[in-house]
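During the second year of the project, the team shifted from modelling isolated chains to modelling whole assemblies. The rationale, set out in the original proposal, was that interfaces cannot be judged from single-chain predictions alone. As a representative example for this report, we include one of the complexes processed in the last quarter. Its constituent sequences, exactly as entered into the pipeline, are reproduced here:
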Amino acid sequence: MWGSNARNAHPIFFHHALRGVNNGARMWTVDPRRTGTAKFADHWLGLNVGSDIALANGVAREIVASGLQNEEFIENSTTGYEDFVAFVEPWTLERTSEVTGVPVGAIRELAHAYATAGKAQICWTLGITEHHTGVDNVQSLCNLSLLTGHVGRWGSGLVPLRGQNNVQGGGDMGALPNKLTGFQDVEDNEVRAKFEAAWDCTIPPINGWNLTQMFEAMGRGEIRAVYCIGENPVDSEADATHARAMLEGLDTLVVQDVFMTRTAELADVVFPAALGWAESDGTATNSERRVQRVRAAVPPPGQARQEVDIINDLAAAMGDDDWGQPTPEELWDELRTVSPMHGGMSWARLEAEGGIQWPCPTEDHPGSQFLHGRLWERPVQGRPAPFSCVEDRPPLDVLTDEFPLRLTTVRALDSYNTGVQTEHYSSPIRTGEALSISTVDAVALGVVDGERVNVSSRRGSITMTVEVEEHLAVGLCHTTFHFPETTDINQITSDAVDPKSGTAEFKAAAIRIDRLPVAAGQPVSVSHSA
Amino acid sequence: MNETPVSVSTMVEFTLDDEVVKVPDGSTILDACRREGIETPTLCWAENLTPVNVCRVCVVEVEGSRVLVPSCSRAVEEGMVVATDSERVRTSRRMVYELLASSVEMDRADPEVHAWMEHYGARPERMGDRSEIATVAQPVKVQDDLYVRDYERCILCYKCVEACGDDAQHTYAIATAGRGFGAHISTEHDVSLPDSACVYCGNCIGVCPTGALAFKTEHDMREAGTWDESSQSVTTTVCPFCGVGCNLELHTQDERIVKVTSPADHSVTHGHLCIKGRFGWQHAHA
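Output from the structure prediction step:
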């Protein structure tokens, strides 16, 4: 478990992991914090925030230096091995330990255990991706699986745990700037020709922009209108002040959401939408690529409508009357004609089989429990998998005397993202937003548990309550971001972005904590009376 | 090495109610009964929990065994001779229901519990008038907005303890405490639930067979007389929180969600959910 607190963020996945642990599987966690997940692990590697590539490179070097790499797999199924070995050569255990803060023995043990395991998985979440090196972080983990052959086999693999119930499905459907439905490349002429014939339209031959690039384009005045569906960037974007200013500067903002979010409040037009999971029929794709049916259980309230109907009517209002009123199943069947990996997934099968994992090209295909099995075919089918030489590049929001503490954002078990959906139930374990700091830092700052303090970064400043956490690493602070209306964390989070993924570096801001000035009329100190 | 493992099991032959049957090695007697269409009552058994053998309503007679054996956990052996409907089995099952129902309020137990009590002619009243004999009656524990613990209805089947522990949640917030008639399910040092290790996944409520553990929404509706299971429908969908893909069963009444469960046979959840999936639905009616 690398950069994943699945115990909180993916509790039911973690039930499966724990069943494995009960059956004798060994678990390592790599996380700056000793999380609830780490408490179930055999070993916890508490690395410095943002030193994941250094650690992965060090583990790789140790595997090679000890001769534990899978020569047969490397020879037949990968490219770039020699360059990679030369590249990681400087990452001795000692240097890796120095950069990551993880003891030499723990790094060696992880390297040896991973390389010699019969089956091994690396699971990760936002602790890997929410960095300015997010894509590189992932590639550094991929390197480890390629070195050892822990990929493309039953029980072995790379497991990114998705944070939203249909973020995978959104990608499947082509809600990505560089992909059409079924992960087919926008810039591939043949692919585009197929879609243009099926949809009777012309598709721009170049990749679009990701979310971060769109905000940049708004800044340059190249995007003047935005249609925002089911996203709350005013609360969720790092550097929220900037995001709000960009949206306010648009000629037209249309927001389609189930709630009147703070983004919707800025909109010229709001389309109230039915809930995707309880008021709509359709599908969702989970982390293991399992497509499952979602079903309407209750009618949407007030003027809220099915999103499919809203989009159809919008198309008609824009002058295209050919879309008709397709049912969700008819839309799905159209998808199956253009997306080979969904070809065999009829709704009848999804119902009967309780979900199917793509790729599932034909009606008689059972679906695929894991990917990349082709790498084990001899000769290997398709392109061999390349090693990536990725540099350790520390967080961009550097620690200085002015901003000496590292802030990382985390998730609470009972809340979800910006809280829009979870603020409506009364959770007995909800404690609200607090800034957790180590005992050592609390003493050094002269602050106590429960004290309100000023928290500043290079972007802004907010007031928060301190929570002293006994086992937290010195210099590390963390907070959730579930209550933006009372504590707007994204006023202070880093605005650094991974240029490859567009994902913001939520996991690594440099901050300072200052005691609040004592207001006039208040006692300067509180004496402990009997 | 790259194939998905396929379990190949050998078959075991034994006699079940005078019929010779074959079942896969490792099957329990209960598995065999279900396979052969022999209905068998259970209380503490659930398909998503490890058997703990405490309720004794699934007992059967095995030739050569001095005592009746719990079918839920006893594995079938080659040549075994099993009787599921002998006089001894019927008497024992009836007695278990009578003892439980004489000291525990069973009115919210699963309907099949009542059907089995009738089937075996259980008459708990022969143990005495419940207003006069010892019972586990006690005030309902309502300590937060999500859970109700009504231990007047608890038969000590341990299912909640198992679901909270090794079988699913691994939180270990509850365990059995006390002895004899004073045995009960308790948090550590009997602290209130919000002060305990409980993370409010609701998986204990999900497995409770008698309504001793209940969702507060359901409890409140029952108290108000508005809970009407006959008018409810159940729709299976996918949880909106995180990407694991847990299936939710939305129990709806009058176009509102009133309860959320998960199918025990679903490969992702095995019937278990987290606090968000179990209780986060309230935004649908915000």
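The CA atoms of residues 224 and 281 of chain A lie 33 Å apart. Chain A has 18 helices and 20 strands.
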